[in-house]
Design goal:
275 residues, alpha/beta, 6-stranded mixed sheet
């Protein structure tokens, strides 16, 4: 077998030849992935159009915004800052814009903000949204927190339809992302208000605050974990997964393209280089 492999390598022009062949096979396989292909199509489409996403708010999002506003009115809450969280594709941006429109507030997307550090939520009367917002930030910055508990399969389909960021479908562990987000929401004090025909769940800040960090620390102490030196997201990972992790890369599936690499390795060694 070693002799066959050596002959194959030499027949391809040595190590450089076989490496090129493997690279071509791997790149072709990755591009064929559903999410990557959709994201490439988005990039191509963006070259020929100036259209902006979410130019109009859907009837569903406006209905959800009105229902959330009614919760505020019923509980005599006039929120200055609201947090919206949920996995990519769950509708955070649309809901934040609809809610901001309904309440006369500003929608603030935190996609370009470093969520591994404390964020200065300096704008009042604002609806902030991000897929790692609840798990990384101090919830007492907000008068209300909203978590979009949409099933992962629906969120993935939404991303593929919009195409932007569709590569995340192939790259990220959405189930893990959702488990950590759900836990961050559930650990916050306050009654959870659900909306009819919606995946949105709402909590209003109690008089003593959300106490989510204190609740998390207590649960870790009960399990015998020493978490004093960990940040909030690391503590959540320790509680949910048994190991402290944090950051965007903590949700990346390390085996996302394993099959494509193995196929490229086999085809690159055994076949002739692509021309």
């Amino acid at each position: 077998m070693i002799g066959t492999l050596l002959k194959s390598v030499l027949g391809k022009g040595g190590v450089a030849g076989i490496a090129t062949s493997i690279g071509v096979y791997f790149l072709s396989s990755v591009i064929a992935k559903r999410g990557v292909r959709a994201n490439l199509q988005f990039l191509i489409d963006s070259l020929f159009t100036d259209e902006t996403e979410n130019q109009f708010l859907s009837e569903k999002s406006m209905k959800e915004a009105k229902a959330i506003a009614e919760i505020f009115v019923k509980n005599r809450v006039l929120p200055e800052k609201i947090a919206v969280d949920g996995v990519p594709g769950s509708g955070k941006t649309t809901l934040a814009k609809a809610l901001a429109s309904e309440l006369g507030m500003e929608a603030v997307c935190l996609d370009h903000q470093d969520m591994d550090e404390p964020v200065a939520f300096s704008k009042n009367f604002a609806v902030y949204e991000h897929h790692r917002l609840l798990r990384t930030q101090n919830l007492d910055n907000f008068d209300a927190i909203i978590y979009l508990d949409q099933p992962v399969v629906l969120s993935k389909e939404n991303i593929l339809k919009r195409k932007r960021g569709a590569y995340l479908v192939d790259l990220m562990n959405f189930d893990l992302l959702k488990r950590i987000g759900e836990t961050a929401y559930s650990l916050a004090d306050g009654s959870s208000h659900s909306l009819k025909d919606s995946f949105a769940k709402v909590k209003l800040k109690p008089g003593k605050g959300f106490q989510d960090s204190e609740n998390l620390l207590q649960k870790l102490d009960e399990r015998g974990f020493d978490s004093a030196a960990l940040n909030k997201e690391e503590k959540l990972f320790l509680f949910v997964e048994g190991k402290p992790k944090n950051g965007f890369l903590a949700y990346v599936n390390p085996r996302a393209f394993e099959d494509e690499f193995l196929d490229a390795l086999i085809n690159g060694v055994m076949d002739k280089p692509a021309r």
